[in-house]
Amino acid sequence: MELRVVLLLPLCFPGLQAQIPGELSQREGSNLSVLCPYLAEDEYRELKSWCRWTDERCQPQVEINGTRTYTYTERAREGHITIQGDPINRNFSITMTDLQVEDSGTYYCAYSQSYVLLKRISLNVFKEFHKLELDSLSVQCPYHDLGFHSERKAWCRYAGQNGTYDLMVSTDTNYTRGISKGKKGRAWIQDDTQERTITITMEKLQAQDSGMYWCALYMPQTPPIFTRIMEVRLSVAKRPAATTLSVTTGTSQNYPPGNSTQPHLWSFTLQALLGFFINKVLVILLLVFLQRRGRCRKEKRRAAEGSPGQLPEEKRS
């Protein structure tokens, strides 16, 4: 995220609007489409460009000249920034996919080698978090301007319709090995100037913590001034009430804490044990019956065949 041109960064004074007029806010991971019309007298073969205002000049991201396209950044080469011409309708379109916080900045539709500016887009890409109560939030806010390392950093919250921001926590003026820290209530902030990263931590989140926040440069004057580095939108939901499972039929009943006597559960347990023993008895009776029937069949078979060595009565007479 390019932040060198401080005048282009949104500032927040008490009583002023939080958003720049005409600023376009997009959630990280979303897509952006921009249509750039040009006048009829502009030659359609002229170079068309999508450029980003950086270091006091418009640096091209992608360009199209006739049917040929040119890419100048890693994001463009990866296919996340594309340009398409439509000479019949005298316009060209820009598509940015999978937006990242680092894509925040000021862009222009332009044409010709001299970059005649046609349309301005101020893009703010924010991070969005969904948490439950008592969760913790950890946010990293990178910054790329070397001039920011000596500035105080802050975590501030949008105060409401009046467009002001309230200070939540800020770094102090003491740096130890390039690191400055701060703590206030449930919020922590750490500025690592070597990594150029601000780390924000909020503990034991509550539903009322939901809102819009900034990682910002902080000028502790009266009134204080916050210069946005990154925007964060936080949503904290209440945790679902704990549910108790009970083996019952019909209307459920509540029992006082510590009372483990539950008639329905005991009744179910007794019925289950009784059924178990009845099944065991039936199985045993069935086995005894089958065993006795087998013996009876063997005795009848022996009686029909006669005893070994015994002759019939007719032959004995």
UniProtKB/TrEMBL annotation:
Cite the SMART domains for this sequence: IG, IGv
Question: A Gene Ontology molecular-function term?
Answer: signaling receptor activity
| Boundaries of every Ig-like domain copy | 14-122
tRNA-binding as UniProt keyword = no
> Gene3D superfamilies recorded for this chain?
Immunoglobulins
Cellular-component GO terms for this entry = cell surface
What residues form the membrane-spanning segments?
265-290
Q: Which residues form the signal peptide?
A: 1-18
Which residue ranges are recorded for the region named Disordered? 298-317
Keywords attached to this Swiss-Prot or TrEMBL record, sorted alphabetically, are: Disulfide bond, Immunoglobulin domain, Membrane, Receptor, Signal, Transmembrane, Transmembrane helix
Q: What is the name listed in the Swiss-Prot or TrEMBL entry for this protein?
A: Natural cytotoxicity triggering receptor 2
InterPro entries associated with the record: Ig-like_dom, Ig-like_dom_sf, Ig-like_fold, Ig_sub, Ig_V-set, Immune_rcpt_domain
SUPFAM superfamilies attached to this UniProt entry: Immunoglobulin
Species classification: Eukaryota, Metazoa, Chordata, Craniata, Vertebrata
Q: Does the keyword Disulfide bond apply?
A: yes
